Amino acid sequence: MAVPDFQSFFLPMLQFASDGDIHSLKDAYASLAEHFNLSDTDRGEMLPSGAQAIYKNRIAWARTYLTKAMLLDSPKRGFFCITERGAKLLADNPPAIRVAQLKCYPEFIAFHRQGGESGGISVAPSIDDEKSASPEEVFEMAFQELRAGLAAELFSLISNNSPEFFEQLVIKLLVKMGYGGSIKDAGMAVGKTGDGGIDGIIKEDKLGLDVIYIQAKRWQGTVGRPEIQKFVGALHGQRAKKGVFITTSSFTKDAGQYVASIDPKVVLIDGVRLVDLMIDYNLGVSTFGTYEIKKVDSDFFSEG
Fold first, then answer.
1. Nearest C-alpha neighbor of 233 from the set 215, 252, 254
2. CA-CA distance, 34 to 292, in Å (whole number)?
3. At 184, phi and psi to the nearest 5?
4. Coarse DSSP helix, strand, coil percentages of the chain, rounded to the nearest 5 percent
5. What's the DSSP call for residue 3?
6. Is the model's pLDDT at 191 over the cut of 60?
7. Where residue 137 falls among pLDDT bands split at 50, 70, 90?
8. Quick one: which of 11, 137, 205, 275 has the most CB atoms within 10 Å?
9. Peptide bond into 226 cis (omega under 30)
10. Pairing outcome for strands 242-247 and 211-217
11. Distance of alpha carbon 110 from its chain centroid, rounded?
């Protein structure tokens, strides 16, 4: 089964704490994963950032929401226990607990307050009774959506420029990634008839101890093994040991298998990876806004 939405963890979380003991969040991960019969695949599903397993993130946020409604108490970081209010709610045998039920508690309403006379700040303004993802997931998914839109725009701009522009873009990207030093002495674009299948040459390091040969093709169709073989042949003609083949399209599976079994070393970069690298290394993009997600520094509040 898939990982349940984060509100589905509310009731099992409260039931897990119903013995009145203090429990760790780590123990809750194991117990609730077993409660929902989560498979290894389910447990391995990660947030878009890859920073945490989705089921753990949803359990942690369930604990936060129940704590804000004062159904759970958090005596110390990473631990929790049921409150008198929580035990009373369980005594009513609710079939489920959703955000709608939590909104009957004034402390939880304050947690969600948006503006108002008290000048409150909304912590998670978009959470409602139908929401399946945790606030952190929503933020990360929105980030990924914005990044995907930016990547699509970059790809369109690259496709509308000349092959010569694309060759220079590749050189600039490799310099951004730390190859070749400055643009002035990084390398040279060949791109001429009779170039032997090589579009550019760039120093691997600032001292020029080795060089990397580049093939940069702004193609529409999929690049197959024959084209890669031509590039490898050109590398052999230069006695080159390293090459990068970059295209705006994609590579066939056969092409990928071929480069994995040959010498010289050839790296394939398709259009998707190309624009991702441009975003990661700030080539052709600029920072529009920066958002920091902060968590409590428990060491700051430790008096020991």
1. 215
2. 34
3. -60, -45
4. 45, 15, 40
5. P
6. no
7. confident
8. 275
9. no
10. parallel
11. 31
